[in-house]
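Notes continue from the previous slide.

Worked example: a multi-chain complex. Inputs as given:
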Amino acid sequence: MNSKCEILTLADLCQYLKENDNYLVLTHASPDGDTLGSAYALKYGLKKLGKKVQVICPDEIPHKYDYFIDDSECDFIPETVVAVDVADIKLLGDLWERFVGRIDLNIDHHVSNTHYAKRLYLEENAAATAESVYEILDELGVEFDRKIANALYTGLSTDTGCFKYANVTVRTHEIAAKLHALGIDAADINRIMFDTKSKSRVKMEMMVLNGAEFHFDDRCMMLAVTLDIQKKTGCTKSDMEGVASMSRSVEGVLVGVAIKETEKDVFKISLRTYDPLDASAICKKLGGGGHKAAAGCTVNGTLAQAKAAILSAIKQALEEADAGSSITE
Amino acid sequence: MNSKCEILTLADLCQYLKENDNYLVLTHASPDGDTLGSAYALKYGLKKLGKKVQVICPDEIPHKYDYFIDDSECDFIPETVVAVDVADIKLLGDLWERFVGRIDLNIDHHVSNTHYAKRLYLEENAAATAESVYEILDELGVEFDRKIANALYTGLSTDTGCFKYANVTVRTHEIAAKLHALGIDAADINRIMFDTKSKSRVKMEMMVLNGAEFHFDDRCMMLAVTLDIQKKTGCTKSDMEGVASMSRSVEGVLVGVAIKETEKDVFKISLRTYDPLDASAICKKLGGGGHKAAAGCTVNGTLAQAKAAILSAIKQALEEADAGSSITE
């Protein structure tokens, strides 16, 4: 953790955004709806204030987000680097080396934020970074338009599983109501984000469910998307999103594990937990992090080794939870 | 349609509810979150005003709704019969004969409402009947408590696919925000309603997806849950909810069809459509009805006959849609 990281209030942040210009806004790698929606809403909002802004995403942006992406060539020399929804400098992926020590501002909502930037605006209680960006643009007096609203709604909706998760607050619904009033395409957005599967995805789900494993008295469900399954079904990276949620959906399951083989012998593990388990704490044991109900880590080795590593961490967490509950009984 | 059906305003309705007493509140058969949530919230609200109220559901209430169900023995003679979220008297199932011509008041939001009651409060733009009940109780000055809020939230959330569908409006999110402020158990409720599958359900999904059919250039996906599949997987009636949504989830699909064999040679068909298709209009051709994006009907005969009947109705609708779009091109 960087002790030189200055923690900003909303007023500080708005002051900083007004005083500076020529913004380079960075999203995290493997971009999701919140990092992209927040980054582009910030871009469109700051441009309305006369600022020059460019968004850079470390990875290619999936086409499903096209409806709010509007990029033009960068015609200025970037001066101010802002990372949005990026909890850790490592999450910049291939851009990591280029920007380490050079992030002027970080706007985020992850408890696991590593304070790597020079300045940090962190709202740990925000369901999505998009909630903070809504408040920031509102505070800056930006006139919201439909494109900004669609981008923010995408962040809000995707980071809450469409208002389903425990991170939703009164404010989340209040902002959603305000965005709806701007004529957003909510149903279309949700259809794209939540209800549109490719045929490859449907085939992949079937193969993955066929190989489902249950552990610890069925309190843990584990699904694995091996390279073999990916090849056989032709499913893409974006086809594989949400497998983690599938793993938590069976009655009685407290922890869902989705293991994706990203390259031979490299396994990206996603965890989804219910109370009292803390996904972030479990993943931290294997060098990862995230939120209490959703976190991840990467394990190298064979599939069997990856499974053993995460199962061991989960076993410990379940034992601690069992011990905790017996004390309070 | 009953020309003697009196259409009430919100003020009329509240006046009526204040003036009368000894309420029997009816839900529709095969109860869902909205009919139950609305009926029980109305019950708890009216009781706070000193009224006597009993809820009757034509079918057994699934245990997943236990958290807001609170019934005591009926210690009064019912005088005023209110049907909640019941679009058609036939939807009272086995209670139909007992109550035909005897429904004093109907509170509903279905476009397909048949005006069968003596009085009707119909808000076709409400995403859920629970939205109307929220407004009614608010107008009556009822002090909301957590049980009422949980019941109403259940109606709101289940009838909108957790705020995912096109029926969601600014008001839907505004009410959700107000209910959140009352300390509802939103995440737990959504977990129970949307993210909890039994193992039988998971097995059933796999078998059903294995038999998925695509028609009309993949614009229609058809899933069938036959009695054979139900027997092999041990899935219950409530395990089969939501199969219709699965049928609409594949890329490019405009109409999803879920066919459930309810008894030998009786098929309950659920349709889910996207613009420009109208599920209600398609189902009407086979004697059914519902909403624009979600409707249903029942067909007797063999599975092949049921499939042929609904496919024929869909074919016609697709051809009409194609013709319509070519005119506007």
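Summary box: The mean pLDDT of chain B is 93. The first helix of chain B runs from residue 10 to 19.
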